[in-house]
Amino acid sequence: MTFTSDDLDRIAADLAATGEIDARYSYMGQGAATWDRFTTWQEGDPTPNVLHFTLGMLRDAHDDLFAALPGPVRVVDLGPGNGVPVRGVLERLRASGRLDGYSGVDASAEMLAIAEANLRAWLGPAAPLRFHRRDFTAAPLADLRGPATLALLTGGTLLNFADPVAVLRHAREAADVVAFVARADTVANRTFFRFGETETGEDIPVRYRVMLDRLGVHRDRYEPEVGFDDRTRQRFLRIRLTSPVTVAGRLPLPAGRSVHLWRYHHRTEAELTMMLDAAGYTPLTARRTPDGEFLLLAGTVAAPSPVDRSASSTSP
Ligand SMILES: C[S@@+](CC[C@H](N)C(=O)[O-])C[C@H]1O[C@@H](n2cnc3c(N)ncnc32)[C@H](O)[C@@H]1O
Is the backbone of residue 269 left (phi > 0), alpha (psi -120 to 50) or beta? Predict the structure, then answer.
């Protein structure tokens, strides 16, 4: 798959405006297969890793999440990856006769195809599964709503966005309950840069290298840089151009310019809970790994205040 002309226009315009190429483009094309290989490898890895912790915390939170949702439950999976993280949630809901349906939402057609093939194989051809190619941070989500809806953001995805609160707030279009997984700030993990998708001898995750290649930014034109920004409290991956390039055939950039590719916000559990609150959710439940580094936080959409209720009841 190559980027569409619209993708290239947007990548160039966003890069000119923000200095960043949105991470979602790294999951398109070959990037989807790379992520699938990484997740499959994590699943079988004997050493505990973020996927194992995610699956364990989701399992532990099932009862709390489902108790907050009456009757049949729709699961809206925001960025499903290869579908592995959500599998247990769907199997559990189906076993209790409460699975209304599943909607996987992803910007990458290739990622969706992998998730669909996996989930249909695991849950059978009759399972009520739907897949939607959308930017879940901006595209409408209200049509995905079921009788009671659980929106999921697993894999640390939320803290990769520039404005996680805005993403959580947008998810309210579909969610009655939202649950997300995050790596909390331990200070020591501010220097954690073992990208699991880096091939031997490479100093940049494969899907970023491949994405940059497809944008005409070849490996001999930049040096990767990783670090921690004390001001914004973000780990970052960016590249510094060592030669002039024209990105996406549209945007000329000089040598020396840096291009932001990836971030991870470092926030404490209290700050993550405040994010839920700021996005209009009431904290529902929290799960932590024994070392406190990985968290699953969930919130219910806060009931409108009496003032909001009276305002909406008088609107036409
Ligand atoms: C870090 S992966 C996590 C995948 C999976 N949830 C997991 O836990 O393994 C991020 C996922 O979100 C998708 N994604 C990232 N930004 C997106 C956006 N703005 N709109 C839709 N999908 C997006 C990617 O294509 C990918 O499937």
Answer: alpha
